[in-house]
Amino acid sequence: MRILHTMLRVGDLQRSIDFYTKVLGMTLLRTSENTEYKYTLAFVGYGSNPDHAELELTYNWGVDQYEMGTAYGHIAIAANDIVSACQSVKDNGGNVTREPGPVKGGTTMIAFVTDPDGYKIELIERKGEVRL
Questions:
Q1: Please, which residues bridge with residue 87 across strands?
Q2: If you write DSSP's letter for every residue of the chain in order, what string do you get?
Q3: pTM score > 0.85 for this model?
Q4: Could you read off the pLDDT of 70-104 as tens digits, one per residue?
């Protein structure tokens, strides 16, 4: 078994697509619309299934915000150079909510970004592994 995708409900689909593609450098992989049940899906990622897990952005027509549950933590994304990745996020209008630094009690370099709907995204430095 393996993870195929993670789904986030978003209040403005285009705003979210722009964030994940322009700020975090993902690619819009595909979209679909269901007129009967009034929702639109957009899948984004750094590659597509079956080689990569994807992020499903779900827009339920007419719903522009959601309550953040207390159980939700974050999505984690590997970054080759975390300082450069955070600067790129800022340069592209994104919000870095925890500047790069070592994880508490360890040496792994991390940072946090918040998407337009308030979802937390952890950037974890993995030198030489990835492009972001």
A1: none
A2: ----EEEEE-S-HHHHHHIIIIIS--EEEEEEEETTTTEEEEEEESS-TTTS-EEEEEEETT----PPPTT---EEEEESSHHHHHHHHHHTT-EEEEEEEEPTTS--EEEEEE-TTS-EEEEEE-TTT---
A3: yes
A4: 888 999 999 999 999 999 999 999 999 999 999 99
Radius of gyration of the chain from its Cα atoms, rounded to whole angstroms: 15
| Cβ pair 8, 117 in contact under 8 A | yes
Question: Which residues have C-beta within 8 Å of that of residue 107, sequence separation ≥ 6?
Answer: none
Phi, psi of 13 (to 5 degrees): -60, -45
Question: For residue 131, what pLDDT band results from cuts at 50, 70 and 90?
Answer: low
Which residues carry out catalysis? 122
Q: Is the pLDDT score of 132 beyond 60?
A: no
